[in-house]
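Listing S7. Sequence submitted for prediction.
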Amino acid sequence: MMLILLLVFVVLFFLFMVLPFWKARYFKATIALIGAIICGGMLVANDSYHYQMKVASTTTTQTMHSTLPKMNALMYQPLGNGSEKIYLYKTKPSQKKPTACKTDHLITKVKRTTAKKATVTITEENYVYKNSFSKFMFGLLNNNHILKERRYTFNLPKDWMVLSTQQAKKLQSIMKDPKVQLNMQTKVKQIVGQRVAQSVKENRMLSPQDQQNLLKKVQKEVLADFIKSNLK
């Protein structure tokens, strides 16, 4: 509607200025010009500064699955000088190709959690019309639901690694070496045994099931530490 009003005021200004038979045509032309300026200013304010719009937010959280086989890892592709990262993640075990973060208005964050499963939380903020009147006035600009910001928060357990695509390729190459595999198994077994024994010593009330859960947890953490040290 605002765009139509602008066109009407422009046409009126033209008619008042060109056709001489209008009474008080200069005064009417001035009013039409002021109306056109106001409408144009409001259109610019709506398009550039989101006048008569508000921010609507939607949040979704999904469980993540590792992008590498036999180990928990979140991969990323560095951009430019490496300060920007595009993370690659999977939300289904059967997913062949990982999903890449959308790059427009992107904010990413990696958090360590005590949760057992890794998750990704995606928050999108969009500009929408404040009410039906705003939509009626500015709807012809077709700028409803314009993206303001998209945030990805990756919540990772301690045993998850964050690797660049280059590191992931290097890691897969290293892990194929029989010597590395043997060394890894020996060290992991040794360190896991020590840490589990220490935990049992400090807490003799641990049930067999608790000890089993602790064993699995420590195995994952020690394996992740071993892999990180090899990558360095």
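Caption to Listing S7: primary sequence and predicted structure tokens for the chain studied. The first strand starts at residue 53 and ends at 63. The radius of gyration is 30 Å.
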